[in-house]
Amino acid sequence: MTMATVNNGVNVQALLDAREALKGAPEAAQFTWRASCKWQDGTHSTTKVGGFFGLGQEQQHKTETSFEADHPEIFASADKGITPIEYVLVGLASCLTAGIAAVAQNRGVQLNSVESQLEGKMDIRGILGMDSDVRNGYDDIKVTFKIDADAPRKEIEAIVAQSQKRSAVYDIIANPVNVSVEVV
Amino acid sequence: MTMATVNNGVNVQALLDAREALKGAPEAAQFTWRASCKWQDGTHSTTKVGGFFGLGQEQQHKTETSFEADHPEIFASADKGITPIEYVLVGLASCLTAGIAAVAQNRGVQLNSVESQLEGKMDIRGILGMDSDVRNGYDDIKVTFKIDADAPRKEIEAIVAQSQKRSAVYDIIANPVNVSVEVV
Fold first, then answer.
1. CA nearest to A87, candidates B94, B101, B180
2. Cα distance from A131 to chain B (closest Cα, Å)?
């Protein structure tokens, strides 16, 4: 049986077991992901990600990670990190890619390589407040995958489509999310 | 005049000049932000951000930056990076924070410190495909700012509100964005 030799590094059985376990305990499926941000200077900030809540208790990543964000020099900033909207592309790329690996594993398809290019188009007259008809964020995001896998093109396309259908970040970008901002 | 002493590190004049310049050249306001992603193993991927297009030509960040993303160990993954949806929080935090610095500078308000906590709530039964009524992404994101600035609370709240109103990442999350995914 060829499926036994497929190894994309995703433990699908553990995910199927989790699904079974959560059927009897839906409250364990309620997760809270967190980040804490500190302004440095100008448009430069540092955001840390370490702990989160899930499966009914506090959880910790192996390590806390810090991320620098800034605006580029052409906006008269110091470019001490990528821009906030580029972080959105990082999230989308990694979410779809992880999903492709998981779906391929579940369908018994060996992946050899998965690469993607992302492009987000934006008219900066929006954030500059020049034209109220121009939105602040991306007008359009295009993701292009190049995949080498032991499967026909049609099956690869179906794996990508299923990953998109179950992607948390795709959902967040493509559909509205309620965001509340408050000052304490 | 007190405004002359306010320094949040944001070159507001350069932004106002850019706004003037773009009035006569709207095509220069068309930006394309990019990322390229490579699957590593399992749910682990590496995304690089370096170049982008804007002001009518190719641009480069001072350095190309790599970002690791993975799922945590409680999802039977290796936790070699933060999760894709946590990257969305990094983007939102840094976008609102940069905006606060810029708006405060423009309004002559000296910031002493700006810190924020972000929480995104998610029911993972969505991404596990357990219940079609449960969405994949965040149900709700809460951002809480703690700001020390030389201004009354009301003025600080107005600065945060203006930052939110002009935030690219807030717009991307709160409103729908068209995303196309293809395989070449």
1. B94
2. 10
